[in-house]
Design brief:
Distance between the termini: 54 Å
Radius of gyration: 29 Å
Strand content: 15-25%
Helix content: 25-40%
Number of strands: 24
Shape: globular
Structural class: alpha+beta
Strand order of the largest sheet: 2-11-10-3-9
Low-confidence stretches: 73-78
Number of domains: 5
CATH superfamily of the largest domain: DNA ligase/mRNA capping enzyme
Mean pLDDT: 87
CATH topology of the largest domain: D-amino Acid Aminotransferase, Chain A, domain 1
Length: about 700
């Protein structure tokens, strides 16, 4: 059946699809990593992973505990002993377009505090399509070879690895402890010869070189592995007793000097344009390499910078894999629909003649906003050379870089004569209220607020979502039903908590007598609602659906104010742009003027405030308590960073302070304990002096917390 665009999914759809995707990706991982017999193509696998990530981004509350986005590799195959990696073997973040490569460069520079003009070198190397392997040498001798496994524990394939000619048994001049990581692969010529031998023996030919390499390495009989023509490229390392070099490129050269095969196409590049030039060159010569690759890997060259950049949960910040393009397809645009979200945003969606793109049938695609349809960007500059998009057009659809299908281009030669420019609506299609576009905003929004049924329904769905009230038995589908119900309607959050009482007072049409509801389901629903009358402050703030206040921001606000009474009083007393409450709100690190204004405004709109008050009357709101004690000189203190930090970036400083139990604020107030001031500190240093706040420089800060 046609796949829904992510923006078309209801919460119930999203939860069901995340469950399906978790199952499919787990099975794909098992087939690829454990059984060495992939059941889907790499493009299809990437599409599943990107769709899972896109749904999680739109519905963060629905992220599963077994989310594929938090996993590396797969479970171990039976028959091999386990081998634990001293340093985790992680996966890589993917890039699919030139813009993604530029974003990678920008993110690295921002994290490190480097200007766009500063020199920042990268390495670029082919991404080998094989099986990851880690080789451990002690005293120069190979003592263990292990597959990646789940990133922490792999399969011990030492005896099999010893049969591969590219893997030295002894290395001279190596550090005492050396873990070399790389890829086991098979060349096209060797694969063809192997399959010829398979056919001669009447055995089933292998599917592709990657499967052949992985299956050969993981034979329980090492003699079979010995008979297979396996190769190994070294490109990284794990545990080391001493550094190999100061740069990525230098370390690869060192591995080559130690006797390992490294890829000769690895190059040093000085920025995104140079990276893309290497990418295009490798892509153009891909067919003549003699082995399979599926992209190009970029890494920050300076190893000291790599250490500063560190890691996310499953990927390093200092590397990205630029994958080769996925499939494009042409189809007809049959209609443009407008969907209204919970904040009133009018989102255009393309309804397409169904077409297969990268193995998935696509019938919807995002059109972003009215500027995108008109062929211009937010600054008014032309995109697609100014070609607009019209109903009836033949459009090019792609999925590379994003699971949500997008329209890349228009074929003007096939445009119907009757096609007319699309006129974006200036009124809400659901409630008829004026839809305005504020200056600087790319999105047009309905002004109907709570009178707009589309916004009301979406806000209610958000209210019961996983990270908010998470009421069992009251999901997106049930919300839509109750919203339209004339007898027991749910039109605002407070109505949820009066549902049982209204049902008891309604003898003629009790909920348990309706289709889809029975005695047990109604009892369970009312019990689930009753259970959620007690709610932590952060979940309540998030559940209110205030524009710009996501799950993370709700946590920041809850931690700062601690109790509902304090938060409600502050928002009620605050005035955007001025006053102590405003300054205190802006002092929350991560809260800017836009978010702060939105939060305050929610409590100053009469209808919305009345709705909040009606809700809170039914609740017991648990305060957010401070974190448990951390033993450090700054634990429990409020710290502000200002000016230029020269030995670490602001992001590094904040992360380090919070790890030591400090609370990092964005501005100085009477509650500030320490101001860390670098050059150009300015007004914050002046205010700290006025308030008697302790001011120290970066060297003193590092001396206080220690270098570690």
């Amino acid at each position: 059946m046609p796949i829904k665009a992510v923006e078309d999914l209801t919460e119930a759809d999203a939860a069901a699809e995340l469950s399906r995707l978790a199952s499919e990706i787990t099975q794909a991982n098992r087939a690829y990593h454990t059984a060495d017999a992939p059941e889907i193509s790499d493009a299809d696998y990437d599409a599943l992973k990107r769709r899972n990530a896109a749904i999680e981004a739109r519905f963060p509350a629905l992220k599963r505990s077994d989310s594929p986005s938090e996993q590396v590799g797969s479970a171990l195959a039976e028959g091999f002993a386990k081998a634990r990696h001293d340093v985790r073997m992680l996966s890589l973040e993917n890039a699919f377009a030139a813009e993604d490569v530029a974003d990678f460069d920008d993110r690295v520079r921002k994290y490190l505090g480097l200007s766009p003009e500063a020199t920042l070198e990268f390495t670029a190397e082919p991404k080998i399509d094989g099986l990851s392997l880690s080789l451990r040498y002690v005293g120069g001798r190979l003592v263990q070879a292990a597959t990646r496994g789940d990133g922490e524990v792999g399969e011990n394939v030492t005896e099999n690895a010893r049969t591969i000619a590219d893997i030295p048994q002894v290395v001279q001049g190596a550090p005492e402890v050396l873990e070399v990581r790389g890829e086991v692969y098979m060349t096209h010529a060797d694969f063809a010869a192997l399959n010829a031998r398979q056919r001669e023996k009447g055995e089933k030919p292998l599917a592709n070189p990657r499967n052949a390499a992985a299956g050969s390495l993981r034979q329980l009989d090492a003699a079979i592995t010995r008979a297979r023509p396996l190769r190994f490229f070294a490109y990284a390392w794990g545990a080391l007793s001493e550094p190999l070099a100061e740069t990525q490129f230098g370390a690869i050269r060192r591995l080559q000097d130690l006797g390992f095969s490294t890829n000769p196409l690895t190059q040093i590049c000085d920025g995104p344009e140079a990276l893309l030039a290497v990418y295009r060159g490798i892509e153009a010569g891909r067919a003549g390499l003699g082995y399979d690759i599926d992209g190009v890997v970029y890494k920050v060259n300076d190893l000291a910078l790599q250490r500063r950049l560190g890691f996310r949960s499953t990927t390093p910040r200092w590397a990205v894999a630029h994958k080769f393009p996925a499939e494009l397809a042409w189809t007809r645009l049959e209609a443009i629909d407008i969907q209204v979200g919970r904040t009133g945003a009018l989102s255009p969606v393309a309804r397409l003649l169904p077409v297969t793109v990268g193995g998935v049938v696509v019938s919807n695609a995002t059109l972003h906003n009215e500027d995108y349809i008109a062929g211009r960007d937010a600054r008014g500059e032309p995109i697609r050379e100014g070609r607009d998009i019209r109903v009836g057009d033949w459009v090019q659809v792609y999925r590379a870089g994003d699971v949500i299908p997008k329209i890349a281009d228009v074929d003007l030669s096939r445009r119907p004569e009757e096609a007319v420019p699309y006129v974006f609506p200036e009124v809400c299609p659901d409630c008829g209220s004026e839809a305005i576009r504020e200056e600087g905003d790319a999105v047009r929004r309905c002004t109907g607020g709570l009178i707009c049924p589309a916004q009301a329904v979406e806000r209610l769905k958000h209210f019961v979502s996983r990270a908010a009230f998470d009421i069992e038995g009251l999901g997106a589908k049930q919300i839509e039903m109750f919203f339209a119900d004339p007898i027991l309607p749910i039109r605002e959050p407070a109505d949820i908590f009066t549902l049982a009482a209204r049902d008891a007072a309604n003898p003629l049409q009790k909920l348990r007598n309706r289709d889809g509801f029975g005695e047990k389901s109604v009892t369970n629903l009312f019990a689930a609602i009753e259970e959620r009358r007690q709610i932590p402050l952060n979940r309540l703030i998030f559940a209110l659906g205030i524009r710009h206040v996501g799950e993370a921001a709700a946590g920041l606000l809850a931690t700062h104010y601690g109790t509902w009474a304090a938060f409600e009083a502050a928002m009620t007393a605050a005035t955007p742009g001025a006053g102590p409450e405003w300054e205190d709100l802006l002092a929350v690190d991560g809260v800017g003027a836009v978010l702060a204004t939105s939060a305050i405004t929610a409590f100053h709109q009469p209808a919305e405030r009345a709705s909040i008050d009606r809700l809170v009357a039914h609740l017991t709101i648990a305060p957010v308590l401070p974190r448990g004690p951390v033993e450090s000189p700054v634990a429990g203190k409020t710290v502000v960073f200002t000016g230029t930090l020269e030995r670490m970036t602001r992001a590094e400083a904040k992360a380090r302070a919070e790890a030591l139990g400090a609370k990092v604020a964005g501005s100085v107030s009477a509650k500030t304990d320490i101001l860390v001031a670098g050059p150009g500190a300015g007004s914050k240093a002046t205010k700290a002096a006025e308030l008697g706040v302790e001011v120290i420089d970066e060297d003193a800060w590092i001396a206080l917390i220690g270098e570690a």
